[in-house]
Amino acid sequence: MKIAIISDVHSNIEAFKAVLKDINERRCDVILCLGDLVGYYYWPEEVVNLLMNTDNVYAIKGNHEEMYFESLSDLKYKESINKKYGSGIDYACDKISNNSLSYLKGLKSSMDLTLDGKNLGMFHGSPFSIDQYVYPDSNQETFFNVTNNKFDVVLFGHTHHQFVSYFNKTLIINPGSVGQARDVRGLAAYAIYDTKSEAVLPIRIKYDIRSLVDAIAKIEKNQRKMLIAIKGVE
Fold this sequence. Notes:
Blueprint (H helix, E strand, L loop, with lengths): L1 E5 L6 H13 L4 E4 L10 H9 L4 E3 L3 H9 L3 H11 L2 H8 L2 H8 L4 E6 L2 E6 L16 H7 L6 E3 L7 E5 L2 E5 L12 E8 L5 E7 L3 H10 L3 H9 L3
Parallel strand pairs: 1-2, 2-3, 5-6, 6-8
Antiparallel strand pairs: 1-9, 4-5, 7-8, 9-10
Helix pairs in contact: 3-4, 3-5, 8-9
C-alpha cells in the first residue's frame, strides 16, 4: 500500500492542487492529512472543500484549526492572531461555509490507524501537544517521548520542515508543509510511505506561486514577512 502523507496546507489552493495531482499520478492508495488546512493564506473554503471531496482520506486537525474556532467567537483573539500570522484566519472566518465548518469541527486532534498491518499514529505537533515542535535536530529525550512500541510509524507536521528518521524501533515521518515550506521555500512538500517495502519517499514539487504572491501584495500589511515565507527572498 502506498500512503501519501500531507500536512500544513494553510489555505494555499495552488500548492494543494499540485500535490493532489502528483499523489494521483503516483497512484497512492490513501491520503493521511495531519492538520492545518487553514491559516496564513486566502483560499480556506476551496482547500477544505477539495479535501472533503477527495477519496480515501484520513484527517486530523492542527493548531490553526483551533485558532480559527476560537476566532469565530472572540474578536480580540482574532485580531491578535491576524497581527501575528497575517490575514489567513480572518479569511477562514469570513469564507468557510457551514458545511466545511462542520467538517473541521468533526476532526480529532490525533488518530490511531492500522493500514496494511502497520500501526500508525497521526499527530499534528506530537502525541502530547498539538502545538509541540519536533525538529530533525531535537534531542534524544524528545524523540524517546514521541515514540513508543504502540506504533510502527509516528507521523507529525507543524514544523514545516520535512524529515524522516528511525528511532526507538519507530519510523518517524514529517512530510513537511504543502502550503508554506520553511526549509525549501517556494516548493510544496509531502511524503509517501510504502507499507510493503517500508520505504519513505520525501517529495517536493513546484507549483504556480504567482496568484499567491499577487494576493499577498493586495491583502497583507506586512507584505515583506509574508513574501519571505513563500519565496525566501524579498
